[in-house]
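re: that complex we talked abt at group meeting.

here r the seqs, copy pasted straight from the sheet so there may be weird spacing, ignore it
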Amino acid sequence: MARSLKKSHAAGWGNLPGFAPTMGYTLLCLLVVVLVPLSTLFFKAATLSWDEFVGAVAAPRVLASYRVTFGAALLAALTNAFFGVIVAWTLVRYRFPGRRILDALVDLPFALPTAVAGITLAGIFASNGLLGKVLEPLGVKVAFTPVGIWLAMVFIGLPFVVRTVQPVLEEFDREVEEAAACLGGNRWQICTRVVFPLMFPAVLTGFTLAFARAVGEYGSIVFIAGNMPMVSEITPLLIITKLEQYDYAGATAVAVVMLLVSFMLLLVLNLLQKWSRRYAEQ
Amino acid sequence: ATELLNVSYDPTRELYQDFNKSFARHWKQKSGQDVTVKQSHGGSGKQARAVIDGLDADVVTLALAYDVDEIHNKAKLIPKDWQKRLPKNSSPYSSTIVFLVRKGNPKQIRDWNDLVRPGISVITPNPKTSGGARWNYLAAWAYALKQKGGNEASAREFVGKLFRNVPVLDSGARGATTTFVQRGQGDVLIAWENEAFLAVNELGKDRFEIVVPSLSILAEPPVALVDKVVDRKGTRVVAQEYLKYLYSQEGQEIAAQNYYRPSDRKVAAKYAKLFPKLRLVTVDQTFGGWTRAQKTHFADGGTFDQIYRPSR
Amino acid sequence: MNSSHYPGVFRVQKAGALAEPFPVRLLLVGGTVLFLTLFLLLPLGALFSEALSKGWQEYRAALLEPDALSAMRLTLVTAVICVPFNLFFGIVASWCTAKFTFPGKSLLVTLIDLPFSVSPVVSGLVYVLVFGLQGWLGPWLQAHDIKIIFAVPGIVLATVFVTFPFVARELIPLMEAQGREEEEAALTLGAGGLQTFLRVTLPNVKWGLLYGVILCNARAMGEFGAVSVVSGHVRGATNTVPLQVEILYNEYNFVAAFAVASVLALLALVSLALKTFTEWKMRQLQKAGA
Amino acid sequence: MSIEIENVSKRFGAFAALDDVSLSVPSGELVALLGPSGSGKTTLLRIIAGLESVDEGKVLLNGEDASLHDPRHRKVGFVFQHYALFRHMNVFDNVAFGLSVKPKRTRPGKEVIRSKVFELLKLIQMEHLWDRYPSQLSGGQRQRVALARALAVEPQVLLLDEPFGALDAKVRQELRRWLRQLHDEIHVTSVFVTHDQEEALEVADRIVVMNRGKVEQEGTPSEVYDHPANPFVFDFLGKVNLFHGRIDNGVAQLGGVRLPASGSSSGTDGPAVGYVRSHDIDISRHGSGSDAIAAQVRGVLRVGPLVRVDLLHAGGEQFEVDLSRDAADRLALQVGEQVFARPRNVRFFVNDYQI
Amino acid sequence: MSIEIENVSKRFGAFAALDDVSLSVPSGELVALLGPSGSGKTTLLRIIAGLESVDEGKVLLNGEDASLHDPRHRKVGFVFQHYALFRHMNVFDNVAFGLSVKPKRTRPGKEVIRSKVFELLKLIQMEHLWDRYPSQLSGGQRQRVALARALAVEPQVLLLDEPFGALDAKVRQELRRWLRQLHDEIHVTSVFVTHDQEEALEVADRIVVMNRGKVEQEGTPSEVYDHPANPFVFDFLGKVNLFHGRIDNGVAQLGGVRLPASGSSSGTDGPAVGYVRSHDIDISRHGSGSDAIAAQVRGVLRVGPLVRVDLLHAGGEQFEVDLSRDAADRLALQVGEQVFARPRNVRFFVNDYQI
Ligand SMILES: Nc1ncnc2c1ncn2[C@@H]1O[C@H](COP(=O)(O)OP(=O)(O)OP(=O)(O)O)[C@@H](O)[C@H]1O
Ligand SMILES: Nc1ncnc2c1ncn2[C@@H]1O[C@H](COP(=O)(O)OP(=O)(O)OP(=O)(O)O)[C@@H](O)[C@H]1O
Ligand SMILES: [Mg+2]
Ligand SMILES: [Mg+2]
Ligand SMILES: O=S(=O)([O-])[O-]
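got the structure back, here u go
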């Protein structure tokens, strides 16, 4: 009761000072830094006729790059969702030597320049690299294949799921689990029917963020992807390619499509998110 | 002191590092002024675009004439006849395309037709983004054309086959070299002659060797003054001298030392031993000039894209 | 069932009846350690071993090389402009979004988040479209001899764009969770708006703020894609550290490339250590309280 | 300072949290706002403090329209339900806050602040804890710090939102008495919110009973307890038994007993409900069916000073009687035995809502 | 199922949350664990449920060592203080959870579960709300859902941790009575935790008073209320007045009054404190100084069914007397007047802790 009350008072206009100036400044920054620059994309793309636009964004090679980019991003985000939950769970629930270090390291992909990450990963997973040497004879080729794209995307997206799930688990009410145990649920039932459903919105948020980041990623991927048209060429690279052919309009057209698609996906995931939290609504 | 900006493509880093020092000395002697030349390197197309978008290059020294043409077309920073303003079509040095293979040439690669053998893995950058790669592509095409019974269709099939042997397409010549040398990908790297020399000398004579194909293309990287920029900055004189100096004895020697084929007869003779002799075709003769070559082969939907069109 | 039946390693955080069976725990901990080692420790190790592969001397020389130093200077300048800007923006934006309700709030938050889902390449591109010679303002800028793109301002702008949401993202949920009661209390005690913010709100979110700043800074220093598009790659002038790494790498100067990269990695590690320390400190404070 | 609330309404979206509320609090009084959860008590308090704006109506502080002043100049001390102490400041700094944010001109010196704060800490009996952080205090201690903090700026009105809501029963009783004594000492106009009728009855000079955004009744504790204006107030202020019956010509017929419907205003004949507090019923073993309700003892339970007797009357209705221990001991009731219950002070309400 | 706690100790780090606690709960009883915050009530409850392990001692359920079973097999229903409902399930699914996680062999069919759940929802009077989520329920409703959920698996022991702690005074009183009735209907062995003495006195068959990890006293409500074993229990179970004095030869000297120190065990002469409940004092206008304490009326306050009289006795000690309204009305005391207070049932404790 206390909590819901607090919430209801956090809502409402109230009389705290400073709304107008801070809102004004926020909108101004948003306009100058985000909205105006992004709008140029649409203006530039609008210089194309519809057919040209379709030609630019629906060429087979471009379509293939969407498939590669969004497909790998999806896979990577799923991987991150899976391992991210395990990592978050382990870091929160268990105590083992080195836990703090691992915990701190989770943020590394946020902090490491993506190009460095790409170069390093390519070095490790190339056929003469530390792991490539081991994997190649087993028939697993990572670097310069779509698997490499997935790998780089997993790397850069890793912190998102962990860092969104972790606080939820930390604040998770143990009593809920205990209640389920007293009602006769076994560990597996408790996890699948009580813990995971409650963690799900956070996982979804992390998944969404990891996905959005992966879709746009460029720096780390070009070094490890192999960049083969139709196979391992990502959309951001295509945008760059078009740019270097002086095809500004084509590049922005693809950029607009990318922007819209990831926006739509974000939107869908946000709706899903809302649905997954429906029980929290008053 | 005056400052020049030379916007160039990837493999010329070392060349211009040496050349700039020499030029600074030369200019000091000649005019008593200090000059520093800043360098910018990247894929040739990317560099041209930067100039088009406002990168204040006093001179451009790019991989293909096409890229300089675009600077004229898109931004009018350079007059249309820029190529006529300097000797040798504005190309103070030339190069060609050769192969780099692993020591001992384990896959027995001798000529272009070895590259299309099944199981051979070829490393070359992406022609859509790399100037060097376009030379590679055109050299292969020319080779196929010049074979007995060669025609457009057979050339197209040949190049298509070749690119199906390519496992990695880097965006620039340097990236491709790294992939071949450092990552151990592929059996053969198609590269600028100077790149190949550099790789062998820098990264190990014991690890790589150069294979010279029977036929290749004469690559003439052009240089140009960016008129609008030098006029705005008031650097026309020194920039012109900079380009001129490329054709001088010293300039030509530096080019040769960096494995670019000098255009000056005397210097060429001096370094003749360095550069293997082979049959060279030119873009103008074989492909009707860069603009046409660009349009048929590398533009969106051109032959290169068709090579990668899904057969299904 | 009782966790104390097992050795000290793999203890469950809060002793209780609800622990997974030991093998499951072992599997999870093992999986985590393996996964993180593979994805985080290994690249980090590879990076440093490459950087130091030719010895300390070479490493030092690579860092003191003038172009490398200039790149570091530029990166620092970028961060020094970009972080305070986004810090200030983050604080202001989180105040008006977290402490008030208004129609369109979630739209506003989404827009603040937007740069996050934009590909860095595209974020660079938009600035080319605005400030490039072929863009909206390019000719005018050139006529007035103002350089934005292919110069420091462009690099800063692109970096600001890319790191725009970082501080705000961190602060908004935090401030929302803390409600408005303390601010209201300060208000009824006669404090003005700024006083309330400085003396009540800010101290309460300072750790979150620090975390946001650290992440913002790390990204600002490490951004590659967007900066690459607007930099122009002029040696010793418009190359940031990540670009310099790429250049060195392309010059077959691998030791130097990794050496310079390791500076960024070290910086990241220091930030992370700092962050871990602050968190630890915070927990300590809480514990002292509880 | 007196508080005048004039026809105040407040809506949140479509929901009316306050609906035409009028109220006046004379200077120096301690008034309780009593009502169930969601009745608008907090909203009213926040409006007085200026933390919430009104949609309609006016708030006058000392006769002046308060909307002219924003919260910081209203000289109102607010004690929040969850204390809202500044987590990052120790007790001293919390209490000193209001003084230290005064404008330079009127801000007292360091020493003056110090002595003033310690004076207050003495008042709340916490001088020795001056350097603790809120998280190191018990609920009751936090509550007192919140109070001292509010008092430090010498407010002319003190507003307390469920000051003891989150505390243990025992601690609550102590603080409750302490608050009353404090008020008797410093006599600042105070309004406190509670949903515990005992708290209101025990502490307040006047009680305002609220329900669904309206004031149901206002008066001294004994006025609202002994003369509740309507069934809601009757029910909310203490345990009550309901007897269903009829009124005819001013005489009520309740479970076979005939009573003068004195409480009822006019002769509204018809079905009616009689409300009787559980301590307003006498039990005896003898009686006639006409002046007492025959009932069976279902249970006898000693609860502290009282003894609760559960009775079942012939009509099937259950009711409860609270006896003092003395009375209960004298009667020595056995479960199952037949007794007679004689209600005193029955109030009749027709249609559940009219006197 | 009976519960036997034998010499249980539980430490958290260096802190002993339970210190050699023994206790037995016969089958079918409703027992209250009463004690101040931090006294170990929750810990004891969790140990019975198997949610916490013991450091020393044993818990026997139905005579069997419980440590052989983990919580899921103890047949213990646990109702948590903050309900711990499954937020993402509606009322029906919450209640059905325990049945639906039974192993396949013993799991009832869908239809059986449905009818069983609705039976329980009827019991808690919430059938119509079966599809609401917990966030859409009031505190009291949530509490009842938590109870129904625990009852669904037909536990042999029901444990309730401050079941009404978070509720309004009014709602609390209702639920309290409802719980008692429920227990009378289904008669499952139940232990509930509270820190509200009134709640314990009103609801429980037996009360266990805890303090600092120890059991201070155990007995029926009237045993602990009327015969508290020590000052702590005396104080914790109701309002009490302290009179400082001496005992000599079995006679106590309290504020000028001489009383037989009947309560005190042996003739431990020396300084002693007399404990008297506030309703165990009679007031009259006449008396002699030897059997009554002369005192001045400082205040008279009507609090619902009782009237509280504040008195100041000559020695300077303040004390309180609770009178029934009747008695108070008869006396019609005025503030300031001089009266005589006659304590009944004085208990003497020497050194604050020994009888
Ligand atoms: N900011 C708000 N936005 C929407 N509704 C609100 C807001 N504040 C209060 N309400 C609603 O107004 C009504 C009155 O709320 P208020 O907090 O004044 O009740 P209260 O009497 O203090 O209750 P409680 O005893 O539970 O604290 C409630 O139904 C509440 O949900
Ligand atoms: N997991 C734990 N770790 C450390 N100390 C604990 C833990 N659980 C309880 N304690 C301590 O043990 C003591 C008894 O706690 P317990 O929760 O049993 O008290 P309680 O009687 O239920 O109090 P309350 O009425 O406040 O709920 C407290 O001092 C508490 O701080
Ligand atoms: Mg309230
Ligand atoms: Mg407890
Ligand atoms: O530098 S290239 O354009 O030859 O790749």
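couple things i noticed - The pocket of sulfate ion (ligand 5) is lined by residues B 9-11, 43-44, 63, 125, 130-132, 172-173 (CB under 6 Å). The longest strand of chain A covers residues 94-95.
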